[in-house]
Amino acid sequence: MNAPTHIPPPIPGEPERASMRTAIPGPASEALRARHHRYQDARPIHFYQDARKSLGNYMVDVDGNVLLDVYGHIAAVPIGYNHPALLAAWRDGRFDWCAGYRSALGVAPAPEWVDLVEKTLMRVAPKGHTRVFTFTTGAEAVENALKAAFIRLARRRRGGAQPSDGDLAATMLNRQPGVNAFKVLSFDGGFHGRSMGALSATRSKPIHKLDIPAFDWPVAPFPASHFPLAAHAEQNRAAETRSLEAVEAALDAHPDEVAAVIVEPIQGEGGDRHASPAFFQALRRLTAERGVALIIDEVQTCGGGTGALWAHEAWDLPEPPDMVTFSKKMQLGGFYCREELAPIEPLRVFNTWLGDPLRGAQLEVILEVIERDRLLENTRSTGERLVAGLEDLCRRYPAVLSGARGSGTFAAVDFPHAARRDAALTALRNRGLEVGGSGERTLRFRPALIFAPRHVGEALDHLESVCK
Amino acid sequence: MNAPTHIPPPIPGEPERASMRTAIPGPASEALRARHHRYQDARPIHFYQDARKSLGNYMVDVDGNVLLDVYGHIAAVPIGYNHPALLAAWRDGRFDWCAGYRSALGVAPAPEWVDLVEKTLMRVAPKGHTRVFTFTTGAEAVENALKAAFIRLARRRRGGAQPSDGDLAATMLNRQPGVNAFKVLSFDGGFHGRSMGALSATRSKPIHKLDIPAFDWPVAPFPASHFPLAAHAEQNRAAETRSLEAVEAALDAHPDEVAAVIVEPIQGEGGDRHASPAFFQALRRLTAERGVALIIDEVQTCGGGTGALWAHEAWDLPEPPDMVTFSKKMQLGGFYCREELAPIEPLRVFNTWLGDPLRGAQLEVILEVIERDRLLENTRSTGERLVAGLEDLCRRYPAVLSGARGSGTFAAVDFPHAARRDAALTALRNRGLEVGGSGERTLRFRPALIFAPRHVGEALDHLESVCK
């Protein structure tokens, strides 16, 4: 059952361990925050980071504190800080074709972009996916995946006919009667971004949605496995059945109006909620039968954190999802899709930049490092240690910790309630562990793929100190 | 009346003139397109650009053609290709703090980001604006500006009270009765982006909106000046009065529901439609009286193309706009706002990346070049030559060209109908002028700020050849 241990080569010069000089945030961070807050909302900032001194798994802040990072700028740091391969590529001119202007990739891209698409983005495409649409962020990825799903549904409903003049006139007035009934089904606790289309599918917390108009779209309960799985098998199965029944009921209630079902492999903002492969297999069968696009939103899970580049690969689906979104660890946003989801007419899913060539070029280097250093293997074996260690802490501190769970190093553990979790976040940061919260009372781990057994040991030490 | 002539220093090695080896697209571009189109929609691509050989105002394509560029990757190239100052900054390490990872700017930014915000972004802030929110694209800028306007309206309607538990529960189900009635008023022909919130305000063309659900928001006619202004003064004034009456009627029809009016200084996608300073002054007065946020969408006009960093500076408004959006020539997206538009609670207008530090660092260099080389002065004087030259062509080829207009080098001229315009675009590209279309039958000029009198002469030569 255990993944073979593979330890990645160390990053030369990486600190041995966190070391703290001040409380977090320290005085230099607070001085910067005071300046910064005059112009931007600086309240959410944990601390200010010394970009050049940070290395590998360790962040250095402007007060000289060295923190072990298992949060990764909200799961967006794939191979740690200042990886030698990334810096060498920058220095050696591999990105020079991106240095002299920012291009509109749908108007006049450089030939290097075609190479990137073919040799990098398509090389790692999810199985069964033939096309990739690139954007800049996860929210843009989701917005555009939803648009492609709407366009497909409208095409089917028109039966290949052109839109009428009346359709076009109504469109310009935002009064497309059938189209405005189109819906996307999402799950409670789901997070899909914060622009208004994506936000209508987001069901994470009121603060994300409050006061922003939303489309009248249906929501189903996410099954949310209880851990350890063996002890809750029946309860988990029943929750998954109820969730699938709710999905089916929502599709029945809106025949031919639900263009897509969107779901995260593991709910990232919603509290690291997991479901079983059987659940996703059933969801794939159900959506395929109804002709509803299944969008797996891998914005937070993509890029290797679960031990695979795509978390959904672990499910053995009866057929591929229709679309898979990405961003964060991939450095630019986008979605992959099956051929039939690509709009037939040009320019319907389009914008000025369509991503960022430099972030694509860096992704190429990142994927080379992941392969060369076998970082997915590392993430699987290191992740098993991490989750085993969290389970051990749950056994030893049952009044504080419960529900250890994870896939690769995409791991989490629960506190009894929000106040305890928030206090732990602060205490951990002050001991030198940069870690994030998710959901109401969960601690989430989103380290880079170079997170190795020795870092697991250190992270668990910090957590145990705080439990005591 | 004439702006003083200021010619920017030449870019060393910039081509003397366009020179063509093949038709556009040439065989090397077509071979790349065939490869590219297997994975992405490559139909809209004009040609593939040699990123390293392009210089100054001239694009070099993969077939060795050299084209004078007055389109600028959809108005997004501020100081031309491979400007020596940008390349030197890259080479000399000014961007090295961005090289080793991509940061989440709301979690742990580097201190360099605070400097960028204070010394660069706020230095060029529109008058009266105290805060800047950064994002990655124009659509994200608009989405988030609209969200800030909704949050402000909701705060006012609650009179400072906290949302009730019922409000929060309804929010999670997308059923906020009052909030879902919130509206944004935009103008026909307006373009504000293609994500679903921004797209609901976009009224450019059916193809941008077809089949995508939209919010039930009102639209008013954009007045659309006719040129030359002196010959159409009365007609233009009447159109502006009708437009303002329609805005007022829409606000009356939805009391306390319209959170924002959004308008471009010059409609960029909608066909380079202009309105007078008096129109915008009246719109500012009207929105201020009603407590409706006025958002000036400067995504396409920002960064100097009109001869000022912000087009709305030309209007002498009775008070500043509430928000100003930007992207394109600024290289990253965002909005500036007056203090009262910033949400009171943290994390309400937020996402993972909040922009891109590298694109911000490049903007700093770009703004230095604009100041050092007095590129706004250049753009004003060169723009006068360009518009005068277009007017001259309109007089000499009245069967082909009409409606010459512009502000700085943000200029346009009309063809009799779409087919003639589209044929001209192709013919111009084949002669060596990369130019764009807008609206139904308009040719738009969006050159870089280093576009100088000699380039005007060449562009007009190409256009005259095509008129003949």
From TrEMBL, chains A, B:
It comes from the Bacteria. The keyword Glycoprotein does not apply. GO terms for molecular function: L-lysine 6-transaminase activity; pyridoxal phosphate binding. Transmembrane segments: none annotated. GO terms for biological process: gamma-aminobutyric acid catabolic process. Belongs to the class-III pyridoxal-phosphate-dependent aminotransferase family. PANTHER family: 4-AMINOBUTYRATE AMINOTRANSFERASE, MITOCHONDRIAL (PTHR43206:SF1), AMINOTRANSFERASE (PTHR43206). Its EC number is 2.6.1.36. Residues 1-20 are annotated as: Disordered. Its cofactor is pyridoxal 5'-phosphate. Keywords: Aminotransferase, Pyridoxal phosphate, Transferase. Residues 1-13 have a biased composition (Pro residues). It catalyses: L-lysine + 2-oxoglutarate = (S)-2-amino-6-oxohexanoate + L-glutamate. This is L-lysine-epsilon aminotransferase. The keyword Transmembrane helix does not apply. InterPro entries: Aminotrans_3, PyrdxlP-dep_Trfase, PyrdxlP-dep_Trfase_major, PyrdxlP-dep_Trfase_small.
